[in-house]
């Protein structure tokens, strides 16, 4: 592959990571410590990026040089593991989340934007108003993946307020996506109840906190049932469809499409994600999820009987706590 073509692909990859021109320029000026005009010359192709500059940009933005050079196997697709430090986040964590929020904002002006999520954990964007549920997922992440050298009691876990604020932006912008579909594992609430019972049995979460989480789950279920019956977000009027899968998931999967973006994601380590901007990976996700929808049961809007049965069963599960 010629140097010019690799350079063009590298610039294209940078623009995919940060589509907004002003944000992209500011990011490169700060990262490379160059004048704006020097950045403009590199982006126009008048001057080539140095090896050190390419390495710095690739590391910062998560660009795969193997993929650009075409050295990856035709049977493999490029993915990036996004590891946010939720308990004690650094600026890179906020920047990573901020870039995703900027891409979400594109959906406001895109009448064809869509998001499909197949979940075996409760979606974070619905839970930010439920303090104890949010803390529980953070508590579980910390004890399983965040700091494996020591455990921490539920009462000692604290969310970073600045990160919660960024997550609220994600939740707000997600409701501006024109079409949203959720397919949930049939045991999605049972999984959480099982986790709560386990951590209670080893005394990492107290009885009082379990009761508070139980109350929040009951409130959440009531609110979710209203959302399912209405089939639209009250804030934006955009449609949301809820399905219950007839099979269990080994992980949570999602894809997001706007006029400038196609992204596929796999939930990893409870709160983190493995992300790809690769077109083929997106196509695989899309086809799999469309097939899954055909074998799932719709509980929003018209699926009244199935909706009533589902929520009755979930309330019985939660009452076991």
Structure keywords:
13% strand, alpha+beta, 321 residues, 12 helices, 434 Repressor (Amino-terminal Domain), eight-stranded mixed sheet
Q: How would you concisely characterize the structure shown here?
A:
This protein has 321 residues and is α+β, with helices and mostly antiparallel strands. 52% of the residues lie in helices and 13% in strands.
Structural notes for this entry:
With 321 residues, this protein is α+β, with helices and mostly antiparallel strands. The protein has 2 domains: 3-69, 434 Repressor (Amino-terminal Domain) (Orthogonal Bundle), CATH 1.10.260; 80-318, no CATH class. Helix content is 52%, strand content 13%. The chain is built from 12 helices and 8 strands. It has helices spanning 3-17, 21-32, 36-44, 51-61, 65-69, 91-105, 131-146, 161-174, 188-201, 207-230, 279-294, 304-318; strands at 80-82, 114-119, 179-184, 240-245, 253-258, 261-268, 272-276, 296-298. The protein has an 8-stranded mixed beta sheet with strand order 1-7-6-5-2-3-4-8, sandwiched between helices. The longest helix is centred in the last third of the chain and has 24 residues, at 207-230. The radius of gyration is 22 Å and the shape is globular.
Number of helical segments with 4 or more residues: 12
What's the N-to-C terminus distance? Answer: 60 Å
From N to C, what is the helix and strand string? HHHHHEHEHHEHHEEEEHEH
Globular, elongated, flat, extended or rod-shaped: what is the shape?
globular
Q: Approximately how much beta-strand content do the residues carry?
A: 5-15%
Mean pLDDT: 85
Report the major sheet: 8 strands, mixed
Count the E strands: 8
SSE class: alpha+beta
What percent of residues adopt helix (DSSP H or I)?
A: 40-55%
Question: Measured on Cα atoms, how large is the radius of gyration?
Answer: 22 Å
Domain module count: 2
Strand order of the largest sheet: 1-7-6-5-2-3-4-8
Spans with pLDDT under 50 lasting ≥5 residues? none
């Amino acid at each position: 592959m010629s140097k010019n073509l690799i350079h063009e692909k590298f610039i294209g990859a940078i623009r995919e990571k940060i589509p907004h021109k002003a944000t992209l320029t500011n990011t490169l000026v700060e990262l490379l410590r160059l004048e704006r005009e020097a950045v403009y010359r590199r982006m126009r192709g008048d001057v080539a990026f140095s090896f050190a500059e390419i390495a710095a940009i690739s590391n910062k933005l998560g660009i795969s040089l193997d993929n650009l050079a075409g050295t990856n196997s035709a049977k493999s697709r490029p993915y990036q593991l996004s590891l946010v430090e939720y308990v004690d986040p650094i600026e890179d964590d906020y920047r990573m989340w901020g870039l995703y929020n900027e891409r979400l904002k594109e959906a406001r002006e895109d009448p064809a934007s869509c998001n499909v999520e197949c979940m075996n954990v409760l979606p974070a964007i619905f839970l930010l108003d439920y303090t104890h549920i949010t803390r529980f997922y953070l508590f579980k992440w910390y004890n399983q993946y965040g700091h494996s050298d020591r455990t921490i009691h539920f009462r000692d876990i604290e969310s970073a307020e600045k990160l919660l604020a960024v997550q609220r932006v994600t939740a707000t912008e997600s409701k501006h996506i024109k079409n949203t579909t959720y397919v949930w594992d049939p045991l999605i609430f049972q999984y959480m109840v099982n986790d709560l019972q386990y951590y209670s049995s080893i005394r990492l979460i107290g009885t009082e906190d379990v009761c508070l989480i139980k109350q929040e789950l009951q409130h959440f279920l009531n609110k979710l049932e209203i959302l399912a019956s209405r089939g639209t977000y009250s804030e934006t009027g955009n449609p949301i469809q809820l399905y219950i899968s007839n099979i269990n998931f080994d992980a949570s999967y999602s894809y997001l499409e706007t006029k400038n973006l196609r992204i596929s994601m796999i939930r990893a380590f409870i709160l983190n994600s493995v992300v790809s901007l690769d077109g083929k990976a997106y196509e695989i996700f899309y086809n799999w999820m469309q097939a899954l929808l055909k074998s799932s049961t719709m509980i929003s809007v018209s699926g009244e009987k199935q909706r009533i049965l589902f929520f009755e069963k979930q309330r019985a599960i939660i009452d076991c706590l």
